[in-house]
Model the fold of this input.
Amino acid sequence: METLSNIPPAFLLFVAACLTPFIKGVARNIFLILVPAAVFFYIAALPIGDGPSFSFLPGFGEIEPLRVDKLSKAFGYIFTLNAAAAMLFAFYVKKAFQHTWALVYIGSALGVIFSGDLITLYINWELMAISSTFVIMARNTEKAKGAAFRYVLVHIFGGLLLLAGIVMTISAGDGIAFDGFQFENANTASTLILLGFLVNAAAPGVSAWLSDAYPEASVTGGVILSAYTTKTAVYVLLRGFAGWEPLIWVGCAMTVFGIIYALLENDMRRILAYSIINQVGFMVCAAGIGTKMAISGAVAHAFCHIIYKSLLWMSAGAVLYRTGKSKCTELGGLYKTMPLTLIFGTIGALAISAVPFTSGFTSKTIIIAATEYSHLFWPWIVLELASAGVFLHAGIKFPYFVFFNVDRGLRPKEAPKTMLLAMAFLAFLCIYMGLRPNELYSILPFAVDYKAYTVPHLVTQMQLLMLSALVFFLFLPMLKRTATISLDTDWFYRKGGKAFYGLMDRSLNGINGFAHRTFIGGFTTKLGELAATGPTRALILILTPYWTMTGKNQEEQQTLKTTIQTQVDKGAFPIGITAWLSVLFLALIFLF
Amino acid sequence: MKNPKKEFDWFDHKSSRKLLWWLLWITCGLTVVAELFIHRHPHFDIDGIFSFYAITGFIGCSLMILGAKGLGLILKRDENYYGEEEETSLPKDIDGDAQ
Done:
């Protein structure tokens, strides 16, 4: 047991990923559910403390692939729990490709969570980027492939920032241990690491990879993707950058950004993608506050968020699976034939909106309370507004436009049973953690002295939410969906990339063309012509005065010229003349 | 429809929608009225105002919708803006490699 508890959970999932293609049929689907479930219990059994460490290169410090504490355990629980639910949801998927990569993806996310040093972290970080790219590509459409390509480029950029930061940290002699960086001692190295992390957290300016790529993934791929990359980033921010004040404002900006774009969006899964940015904003803000309460609040929120966000992606996925449509302008009236999907989706929508008796109410409000206790007025008001905005875009907009609004004559069947089962499980958790928050609070890194259920809190929360709902329905004509997309920062590399390509095409190929025309078409041809006709011309030039002196008239001269040209073309000079010319030529060289 | 059973379409009726509107207004009113009977502990000055959260929710959401609408004028583009081929025909297998 001693050695068994030394195996990093990531390794177990990597082994499972290698086995996945070799297991056939339903056995594989069952295997895929059982593996994360088993790893969940394995993580629960892991003793708190550092696992084995070994030295890497002299002077580098210790590699520590398994650091177990309450913070890493909490993320380990939710990552594996969600994976099991997602695999149940994906029970119908027959091919191994997506799930093999999904296991690598989930495994590498766990690898980051449990890594105690920057090198283990970096390797898993990059593995996460690569494996998730394959999960996106698994949908096998041109759009998915394009999005996956852009996705991996952005993540390579983020990974390079992280790598540069790590290299600078090591060369400064600060070792490779991954612990908290101090804001007071911020330097280029720690800032680069932070920027690398923020790329994965989908911070403003570098968030477009998320809303671009996730909605292009398959029905089940979207569910899997929604949980790991951003929440791993939240974990590393909580671990490494707690109390870094700028993160408060980055988080606040994310919450508002997510809402505005979700309100503009037409694609239901893209609404949910922007909603991830909004929710992660709460957690990034909490990391910036950095108090024990804020950190525990962020962990609680990440835990609950993964569950209800997965649930929302599942309900949207079930709709996409049954109708083949994902745009609000093409959906509506589905409550008639997909009532269970509606109910489970709505539970997720209520939970994300922090409606009392759901998990959002018992988790997100800790972060808001942390801003109050730290007397951070502006972050507090932004988060309150963002909470109201969540109800607008995810709580009401998503279910309303998909399941109600206008009947578009769609009569799809209810979602398959395994999908419903997975949704029911997560919906149960949403309500369970809303009703019994203490069990959730017991796994948080720091004990929280927070009571969500007080009468004033219930009243104020209901005021905020109900008035937001009122605004939604009063402004409904303004929220009418249009078949449009909204420009995001991916414009810079999607249009910018094309413009750069065009510019390079015109400039470099222009130079190339000019060079071709001038040298190949012009100079070389002329040189060739000169070599071919030059001697004849020279000969004629020399002979013309001689002919004139010997009294040849124009006609005779012309005949002689033609004869010489013909003789040169055919190489038909009598040997005597050629020899005579050679002597003449050598004499000229000798004389000059 | 092959199913002779009448479809559940309660939400499509005008009367139902009217009822829901009433319920929404009443609930909003009740949440504000309820504040008369509680004692709050505001952390800042501004949140001590009566029905602060209702006002925040109302004004905040209105501004966000108007803001989004305004930004939409600048940011919204046609769906084929990036010139990607829209997969119009529904693939047999919506989930890519699922089958």
